[in-house]
Amino acid sequence: MRETTIESILCEQTGDSCTLIHHKSGLDIYVCEMPGFHTTEALFGTKYGSINTQFKTAQEPDFCTVPEGIAHFLEHKLFENEDSDVFALYAKTGAEGNAFTSFDKTCYLFRCSDHYLDSLEILLSFVQSPYFTPENVAKEQGIIGQEIRMCDDDPGWRVFFHMLQGLYHNHPVKIDIAGTVESIAEITDQLLYRCYHTFYNLHNMVLSIAGNCKVEEILPLADRLLKPYEDIQLETVFPEEPASIVQSEIVDQAPIGVPLFHLGIKCAPKNGMESVHAELAAYFIIQILTDSGSPLYQSMMQEQLINNTFSGEVFNGDGYFTILFEGESTQPRTVREKIMEAIQTAQRDGLDPERFEEVKKSTYGSMVRELNSVSAVANAMLNAHMNGVTPYAVLSVLSQFTLEEANRYLREEVHPANSTLSMMESCAR
Fold first, then answer.
1. Tens of pLDDT along 153-195?
2. SS3 state of residue 244
C-alpha cells in the first residue's frame, strides 16, 4: 500500500495553484482552495464511459466484452442504495447532486454553499456502496429503455450519431451512450458488480474539489472513508479503426420545421500532451474559418445558407477525434462545399494571421476568467487528470501556441475527403 503524498501544482502563467493528494487508498485527489468564494463543487469520477466495453485486469488472461450501455446503467444504479435515498441525503445538507456518463468517463458531483464536508461524505460513501439485485436491475431496464426510445425520437441526437456511424467503422463511439434496448436487456446484477469492481477501483478514479474548501479538512475525511485498493492494472482496448470513413453522406427524415445537419471530419486520435496540442489546433481552425466573425460565416448568413444555430467544436476522446460543424440549413450540401473550400484555401495560403492573434487573445482571456469559476476549475482538474496531463497544461500550451503549429496541423491532419455529412430532412408529421 502506498503512503499519502501531497504536491502543489502551479500555473506559471497566472500564479494560480492547486493541490494534488496521492492518497494511500490509490485515489488521486485534486483540491483548489479559492478564498473569497462561498460555494464548493466536487466531482468523483472514474475513467469509464460508454466506449469501454472491452477490458481485462492483470489477473485475467483474456479480454472480456460487456453489453453496450452498461457504464450508463451502472451510473443510474449507484444512486439506489439499500437503505437510503442519496438525493434525500443531499437535501439535508443543502447540496445539489447529479451525475453523468459520457463516452469516456462517469462522474458523480455535488454543488453546495454550506456543509461541504457532510456532502463530500455522502458522495464518497454512496459511490463506494453498490447495491444491485435482479429485481432493481429489471426495473432499471424498463426506465432506461424508455430513455433510449426518447433519444431515438430526438432528431438532433439521431443526426449526430448518424454522422459518427458514417465516420467510424468499428470504434464504439458510434454507439449511443445509453446502449440499445437489446443490449441493456443483457445486463445482469453480476455483470454490474464485475464492471463496478473493475472500473470503480480507486486507482482508476479521481476526486476533484474546488471553492470554499481546505486540504486539511478533506484529508481526515478521505482517510476515514476511502478503503485501500490494490492496483488491478486495468487494460481497455478498442477494435482496430481504419483511417478511412464508412460513407460520406447519410440522409434521414423526421417531422421537423427546419432541416438539420452535422458535418464531421475524421482526424487521427491523440493522447496526453499530443491531444492538447491537436485539440487547440483544431479549435483555432474552427474559430478562424467559421466562427461568427469569419468571412465564411458572414457570407453563408447573407446567402441564408445557415442561421445562428451554426457552430463548430472539437469532439475527441480515447481513440477518436472529429472536427464537427452543425446547425440548421435547407442547403447542407452547399454549406459543406463552402466549408471544405475554406479549409482547402487555408491549407494552401495559411490561416489569417490577424484572426489567429484575435482568437488566441480572446481564448486566453476566457481561460484565465474560468480560473475564477468554481465549477470550471473543478471540472478542469478532473478532465486534465483523465487526459493524463496537469490541470494547467492547456493554458500553458495555449500561451506558446503559434500560427505555424495551427497551419501544420491543418495541412497534415485535416483531410476534407475524410468527412461525413449527416442530414435530417423534413417530412410530413
1. 889 999 999 999 999 999 999 999 999 999 999 999 999 999 9
2. coil
Which entry of 68, 75, 140, 413 is annotated as an active-site residue?
Answer: 75
Which strands sit side by side in the sheet containing 17-22, from one edge to the other? 5-10, 17-22, 28-33, 205-211, 40-46, 106-112, 96-101
The C-alpha cell that represents 277 in the structure block: 496540442
179 and 67 in contact (C-beta within 8 Å)? yes
Residue 112 contacts residue 39 (beta carbons within 8 Å): yes
- Planar angle of CA 211, 213, 216, nearest 5 degrees: 150
Taking the C-alpha atoms of 146, 148, 149 and 153 in order, what is their torsion angle to the nearest 10 degrees? 140
Angle, CA 48 vertex, CA 53 and CA 111 arms, to 5°: 150
Q: Can you give the residue ranges of every domain in the chain? A: 5-236, 249-426
**Would 5-236 and 249-426 be classified into the same CATH topology?**
yes
**Integer Cα distance of 316 and 265 in angstroms:** 11
Contact 362, 356 (CB under 8 A): no
Listing DSSP states for 253-294 in one string gives EES-SS-EEEEEEE-----HHHHHHHHHHHHHHHHHHHSTTS
Tell me which of 3.40.50.150, 3.30.830.10, 3.40.50.300, 3.30.200.20 is the CATH number of domain 5-236. 3.30.830.10
**pLDDT digit string (tens) for 56-111?**
999 999 999 999 999 999 999 998 877 778 999 999 999 999 999 999 999 999 99
**Distance from C-alpha of 315 to C-alpha of 417, rounded to nearest angstrom:** 18
Catalytic annotation present for 75: yes
User: May I ask the CATH architecture of the domain 249-426?
Assistant: 2-Layer Sandwich (3.30)
What span, in angstroms and rounded, lies between the C-alpha atoms of 270 and 277?
9
Q: What is the 3-state secondary structure (H, E, C) of 166-234?
A: HHCCCCHHHCCCCCCHHHHCCCCHHHHHHHHHHHCCHHHEEEEEEECCCHHHHHHHHHHHCCCCCCCCC
**What is the number of H-type helices and E-type strands within the chain?**
15, 15
